[in-house]
Specification:
- The chain is mainly β.
- It is built from two helices and 28 strands.
- 8% of the residues lie in helices and 45% in strands.
- Strand 14 and strand 15 (201-208) form a beta hairpin.
Length: 363
């Protein structure tokens, strides 16, 4: 017996099948219009120059992932990885190896990761790459002139305190309005790292010696400057003016090795001491121009001295290091013992009795 399908039944079946097909086709554009999700596994990466590192992230998209792109123009990185051969998976784990360039600047490097689904909807996120810049010592400089780093007996550039990993704190007297300062990890060069204001974000530092702008101290006076060489944050805080009554009336160099003082040999009285000149604005600051060298008639080959208040031996400053001082030590420390010759060198002495900083800069 033959079986017949009625026209009305066939029509209902056709409408049902078309409805299902239409729903499937309409669902796909709706899903693929939603951007993929990116979850960074290691959004902050700390590494060193020339070292390889991995950038990892999890991608997810209900329609399917077409590709992902990593881009950072500063390092000439621009790579798109297609996932078509993997069947446009709905989830994918990115593990991308890269080498930090040997010439990378000490700043925050932002590598952009963009995921694209099969509907060309995109989502982006960034890996932050930081140079492991945990220097054991930092120095404050007032000029980018390389000669200022070498034409000194000691004390310049000025050594500053390290308070914890990556964190440093400087106390500095600005002797003029709009004084300019930078920070460097080497006593003898500003390359490759010199810290100053980032020209693209003045709330952050840049460690790139070619781009770092000076930190400007607007007024005369003492400042505390704190900064972090890892996240490149910094702060500048004016300090209250110290009480003038606490300053010593006089300070003097006592010892030997000053060319124009041939009879000077550890006496602590005039005329065989060198009185320093008190600054007219800051009573804690003293300066003097002297010639350092073995005087005629003497045979010793090192200069040995301390700083006193010209008040017997009651109050005095020695130094933290005899041959390469960074700062003075009130009531303690060591006498200098720095090599000299019979050819004198002229230096400007600057002694800050408030911060215990002392420097001899060639003139």
């Amino acid at each position: 017996m033959r079986k017949y399908i009625s026209f009305s039944g066939l029509l209902l079946l056709t409408i049902f099948l078309l409805t299902i097909s239409s729903c499937k086709k309409n669902d796909l554009p709706a899903v693929s219009a939603i951007p993929p999700k990116i979850t960074l596994t290691n959004d902050v990466i700390i590494t060193t120059l020339g070292s390889e590192f991995f950038m990892e992230a999890d991608l997810a998209d209900d329609a399917g992932i077409k590709s992902f792109t990593l881009r950072y123009d500063d390092w000439y990185l621009y790579n798109t990885v297609s996932l078509n051969d993997l069947g446009n998976p709905k989830t994918y784990h990115v593990k991308y190896k890269f080498k930090m360039p040997d010439t990378a600047a000490n700043k925050i490097h932002s590598i952009n990761l963009t995921a694209t689904n099969i509907g060309n909807a995109t989502q982006s996120n960034q890996f932050k790459i930081l140079l492991d810049a945990d220097f054991p010592k930092m120095y404050l400089i007032e000029s980018k002139d390389p000669a200022k780093l070498t034409g000194v007996l000691f004390g310049a550039p000025m050594g500053i305190n390290k308070t914890s990993s990556y964190n440093f704190n400087a106390v500095y007297y600005a002797a003029a309005v709009n004084s300019k300062i930078w920070f460097i990890p080497s006593r003898s060069t500003i390359k490759p790292f010199m810290y100053g204001v980032d020209p693209q974000n003045n709330l952050k530092l840049s460690g790139d010696y070619a781009k770092a702008l000076p930190i400007i101290l607007p007024n005369i006076g003492y400042y505390t400057i704190a900064f972090n060489t890892l996240n490149l944050t910094y702060s500048v805080t004016p300090m209250p003016a110290p009480d003038p009554a606490g300053a010593y009336p006089q300070t003097a160099l006592v010892g030997r090795g000053f060319f124009d003082y041939p009879n000077m040999s550890w006496q602590n009285a005039l005329p065989n001491i060198i009185l320093l000149d008190k600054d007219p604005i800051n009573p804690y600051l003293f300066t003097k121009t002297v010639k350092v060298g073995t005087p005629p008639g003497s045979t010793y080959t090192t200069t040995q001295f301390i700083i006193t208040t010209n008040n017997g031996w009651t109050n005095f400053w020695r130094f933290d290091n005899a041959t390469s001082p960074n700062y003075t030590v009130f009531g303690g420390g060591a006498n200098t013992d720095i090599p000299i010759t019979t050819t004198p060198v002229t230096y400007k002495v600057t002694f800050d009795s408030y911060t215990n900083q002392c420097k001899f800069e060639s003139q």
